[in-house]
Design a protein that fits this description.
The chain has one domain: Carbamate kinase (3-Layer(aba) Sandwich). Helices cover 37% and strands 19% of the residues. The chain contains nine helices and eleven strands. It is globular, with a radius of gyration of 17 Å.
Length: 238
């Protein structure tokens, strides 16, 4: 059996990742695929928490561009993350993976409230915990929520799943000579304004020495390889 490099990880999934190629909503095939990827690491004894975005359903920042008040728009975005989290929970439990959804906004009939000690207990029992509704506050992205939750649960690393292999010094879709960056410092990400995560999330990770790893969700087996210590994607640390 492979030996895991990490004991506890937090996986950040964007809402856009869940819609696949259909342009909106939740793609059942993507949910099935993510379930398979998570199932592949269950035998390693690694504790897994997940934060899901809501951009496939509603994005608060975009709504403000047509006049919606930011706080209302962000709360709608938080509700979108809950919908995604419940869909992901269903996909995981169909594979026999015990899963709990905890939300930063109280909705007891739908999911557990976010309680750190309860979340830790779930992780210790081998359950996957999905943190929904961001931080529960407007003006904060789910990237920032992911870093915050990773710090609170003492995750060894935060895995940021994207559509590309990692960071490049230019847009690889536009510039064919774009150079892949396997390793970079937090401060360099901030100075060069590389938009892999929002600046608040990067700063919070830097202040608390939380390593980040940006990788492609599209390549099957990447999560397994990362946990087993293989070089995948771009690592961001001090």
């Amino acid at each position: 059996m492979a030996t895991p490099r990490y004991r506890r990880i937090l996986l950040k999934l964007s809402g856009e990742a869940l819609m696949g190629d259909q342009g909106y909503g939740i793609c059942p095939k993507v949910l099935q695929y993510v379930g398979e990827e998570v199932a592949s690491i269950q035998g390693l004894g690694v504790q897994l928490a997940i934060v899901v975005g809501g951009g496939n359903i509603f994005r608060g920042v975009k709504a403000t561009s047509f006049g919606m008040e930011r706080t209302s728009a962000d709360h709608m975005g938080m509700l979108a993350t809950v919908m995604n989290s419940l869909a992901l929970q269903d996909a995981l439990e169909k594979r026999g993976i015990q899963t709990r959804v905890q939300t930063a906004i109280s909705m007891h009939e739908v999911a557990e409230p976010y309680i750190l000690r309860r979340a830790l207990r779930h992780l210790e029992k081998g359950r996957v915990v999905i943190f929904a509704a961001g931080t529960g506050n407007p003006y904060f992205t789910t990237d920032t929520a992911a870093v915050l939750r990773a710090q609170e649960i003492h995750a060894d690393i935060l895995l940021k799943a994207t559509k590309v292999d990692g960071l490049y010094d230019a847009d690889p879709e536009i510039n064919k000579e774009a150079r892949f960056i396997p390793h970079i410092r937090y401060m360099e990400v901030l100075e060069r304004q590389l938009r892999v995560m929002d600046m608040t999330a990067i700063s919070l990770a830097m202040d608390n020495h939380l390593p980040l790893l940006v990788f492609s969700l599209k390549k099957s087996g990447n999560i397994f390889k990362i946990i087993c210590g293989e070089q995948v994607g771009t690592r961001i640390d001090k």
